[in-house]
Design goal:
With 222 residues, this protein is of the alpha/beta class. 49% of the residues lie in helices and 13% in strands.
Length: 222
Amino acid sequence: MIRVLLIDDQPLIRTGFRALLDLEDDIEVVGEAADGDEGLALLRERLPDVALIDIQMPVMDGIEATRRIAGDSALAGVHVVMLTNYGMDEYVFEALRAGAAGFLVKDILPEDFLHAVRVAARGDALLAPALTRKLIGRYLTQPSPVRIGGRLEVLTGREREAVALAAQGLSNSEIADHLVISPATAKTHINRAMTKLHARDRAQLVVFAYESGLVTVTPRGS
């Protein structure tokens, strides 16, 4: 059972998302909160697998809440997905720096929303291949990027290959096909790389791949 907690100051949004989630046999909504401060208290009490957090809220916004979640070892198992009305705005980059695993636009299709919750619960980043390139390309132009605590030298050659492919948006199964290994082995390479680099999740691992130069972004015209 995937345990989900909703944190959004708009009751209608929470009600809509909860209605969708409650229809699924493998998903349970364990609580709702209207701001980040209230949400943090519920998170510590109920320890969900996924926290869906609005970026802009009163009292404590989603970015600060995410930053505190990422800094709390007791919440290490919580995967944060940010909710935004606008998609690729400056708040998205701040959310990634704060430790979010990905983000969703609130007008997402219901089937895509449910898929995203399940992806987040597995610990995968919500960065599709096409979006990864655009997102990371813009992310790297922003000031004060977070540096993940590790260096490429700590990775084996195979781990580097797996991380580079993950940064291009490939799933573990696709990485396995590319490297001609089993999906379990691909997952092991990714997990070991995250441990060595002290990356909280796959999204931070993707950011590291670009910041370290393991993967580069070729500028494109708009």
